[in-house]
Amino acid sequence: MDESPGDEHVAFKQWAESQGVLIKGITPARFPGRRLGMVATRAIKENEIILSVPVAVMLTIDSIPSSFVRSFPAGTSIHGILAAFLTQGNSDLLSKWDTWRRVWPSWQEFEDSMPVFWPEQLRVSNSEFQKTRDGGGSSPVLLPPSISGRWNSLKKRQLKVNYEMRYQDLLRQQEKRLKDAWAHVITAYPETDWENFAHHWSIINSRSFYYISPGKEEPEDWNDAIAMVPFADYFNHADDAACDVKFDGRKYTFMATKSYEKGEEVYMSYGSHSNDFLLVEYGFCLDENPSDGIFLDDIILKALTMEEKKELAAQECFGNYEITSAGPNANTTLVACLKYMRREDWLNYVSGKSQRGFDARKTTALICAWVDVYLEESRASIGIIQDQYNAASSDSEKSIREKMDVALSRWKQIQEICENAVRVMRV
């Protein structure tokens, strides 16, 4: 670990403190093979406040002149307006945050790490944002189905029903947010440079915190409840981080919920997210992630009749059939039971009235068979990536090979999830 991140970071810390940011016992530091993070500069006690950031120094929608906000079409996201302000806003107003902006990640870092900016042969999705070269979407898929929306070993059937997916079809959703924001911005500012805007959009996307303007109701889209919090954006993510984060409308407060030794990295949690979500939104995967999992929706829904789908929807257990290394979630168990139980018994089982007709072995066999389909997909995709990796041998393909490494590592994690889940269920 290099405890000297650079002069620009030292200057930023000094600026933050001059603006009323309270920094106690922590500082940014470099970690080998990883991004900057936060490290303890001394022993930190449990329940000690280590950082406090007043709203006045944050970058929020309320920091932007109302005349600038009004220049955008109705429906423009706050995310898009913030990115546009950083790209096209008044330089005198933006100068307040110049010292902060100098420590932000470069555009190259986002191009390298976020799949939304990867070359199309690596980032195939089922959206209209950027079609594959053959126009038909038949190229091999390197990213998992929860990201790309596509499979290599399974022919996905188009569903005639919509439902709210959790951690699925992630790339298409992100592409739509970016595409819509860009369309609104160039309506107001046609001369906007795409790369500059995309860079600022990514900065906000990966480093924002929860924020709602005083007196405003919570928006329908949580992506519009955002702001940037200086210095707090150094924290790296851990699912079970020992850091309590609070916002009271006046300031953000970060409190250590365990003691730290000098030199120990201090994390905060970005939320309980799968590695597919973390890769799409932040450009990284965790080696150990208790919230990681896969979704069997595409596999299971193909095997259901319309009547079964209607029954699942009526009982509010349609879709989001998740498997973790610990096994299936409740919805997955219920849909397996639906395949063999009498309807009356199944309804009583769903409501918790009776377990009559439930057969643990039949349930396990069905779910394991569905997981085996995903396991075959992981093996097929690992083989495809390894073949393409070996073909990309020149120095000019170094960047491509690095991205393939990320995809390959993710598929190996998925393979392990499948194998562990089957092992647990068959015990």
Verbal overview:
Mean pLDDT is 91; it is low at 126-137. This protein is α+β, with helices and mostly antiparallel strands and 427 residues long. Helix 3 crosses helix 8, helix 3 (78-88) crosses helix 9 and helix 13 crosses helix 15. The protein has three domains: 5-57 and 228-280, Beta-clip-like, CATH 2.170.270; 64-126 and 141-222, no CATH class; 291-424, set domain protein methyltransferase, domain 2 (Alpha-Beta Complex), CATH 3.90.1420. The strands form four sheets. The protein has a four-stranded antiparallel β-sheet with strand order 1-4-9-8, with no helix packed on it. Strand 8 and strand 9 form a beta hairpin. The chain contains 16 helices and 13 strands. Helices cover 42% and strands 11% of the residues.
SSE string, helices as H and strands as E? HEEEEHHHHHHHHEEEEEEHEHHEEHHHH
Q: In oligomeric terms, what are we looking at?
A: single chain
Q: Main sheet: which strands, in order across?
A: 1-4-9-8
- Count of extended strands: 13
Mean pLDDT score: 91
Shape: globular
- Termini, distance in Å? 42 Å
- Overall number of structural domains: 3
Total helices: the number is 16
| Main sheet: strands, sense, barrel | 4 strands, antiparallel
Calculate Rg over CA atoms. 24 Å
What portion of residues belong to β-strands? Answer: 5-15%
Q: Which structural class fits the helix and strand makeup?
A: alpha+beta
Percentage of residues in helical conformation: 40-55%
Q: Spans of 5+ residues with little confidence (pLDDT < 50)?
A: 126-137
